[in-house]
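Its record is quoted verbatim for completeness.
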Amino acid sequence: MKTILIISPPFYSHFSPLLTIAKAIRVSGRVRVVVATASAFENQVRAAKCDFAPLEVASNANTGIAEKTRQVKKEARRLDQFFRATQEGAIPTLLIQAKHRRLDMLPEPMPIYRQLQQLYQQWQPSLFLVDQLNYAVTLSLFSLGYPFITFCPGHPTYIPEGDQTFGVPYAFPSEIQPAAKDLQKLNNLASKIEQEFTSVFNQFLEQYAPHLPAVENAFRLSSPLAILFNYPDFGHLHLQRENPVKCFGGHCFSPNPTLNLEWREIIRENHSRFPKVLLSFGTFLSARSDVIQKTLKYLNQIFPNGLFIAAVGGRLQEYAEFQDSRFILSEFLPQTALLPEVDLVIHHGGNNTFTETLYHAKPMLIFPFSSDQFAIAHDAEHFGIAKVLNPNDFLLEEFEGKIKMLLSGDCDASLRNWSKFSHQRGATFLANSILSFA
């Protein structure tokens, strides 16, 4: 039996969709599936009935809630810098992310190169599946000549095309429009980082794979076989669909999880409340408790009969004022199981939450803070799927106006259309694409 080896970075938001694909491949019964990732995820890999291989590909991590994940002091300090930057706005956040990128995304390649050689000797995979943001892994696989497929976990522009530069959103939503001079500053820094990455790639190739041609742009290096996008095919990006094959999965989660007894009882007891609002800023940005608290206060003023469910990360102690039974606050929510039960979702524009919410055709208000969230928010707004606000600068009146437009059905037609697309794709669609190359 052939083996497919899936490599995930130590980030829950990346690991989760990759594990969903791993399960879909395993169910086919055609190949053995090995997942190589951080030891913190071993139990989940084994519960999915896949083989586990330990692999450390990054010094920083987020295996559940970013602030509570054990970090070395330097990484914790950089995480704190990121959170502070998000309070200053889009460009300061993107600038700090660009400055951190060299350490975040490209650790010393040689240890990873050697680990991959060992994994290959141990498992003899016929094919690797690698997260696009695992740049040192991609570089090593390319150098070693091992066949691999690229998985793009976020917005498709994570693999830039045309005049796009990695780290610079190809577009911003209407509520967040940086000044031209600030965008130029970001472009200059991102271009410099791009050159640095590419130089590191080519120095490594020159030493360990001198028979291979130099790389023109490290951020564009991906599988020559296929690229899988965890995103809807809106028809405006990566229109060249061959060499490599481009597959848009729409979503990458298990759509029908069951709520446990406690949550079923909460929903039952509050069945008459309207609207039921789910507030989720992901495993990183739940640290922005100031925005979550402001949002909850506004919701409380606007909807005295509403039910408000929020993921607040490790900061539950900061929400003492929200003791009313209409506020259900938790460190971590069974998000995908709750989505069918709510009327509205307020989120940060993270790709997992965006695609999960779209699958269920739920109205959404997006507060983008960082990285590809601005591009996702732009697309959601442009294609009539969501409304967008600036998380650092929104007033009660505009918040109420957009919420009420969403609840009145302003985006329903577009939501139904793209939800239908998503239902036709998913992890099984992506798994079948992978199996065609195994």
Remarks:
- The chain has two domains: 2-69+105-251+425-435, 261-423.
- The chain is about 45% helix and 15% strand.
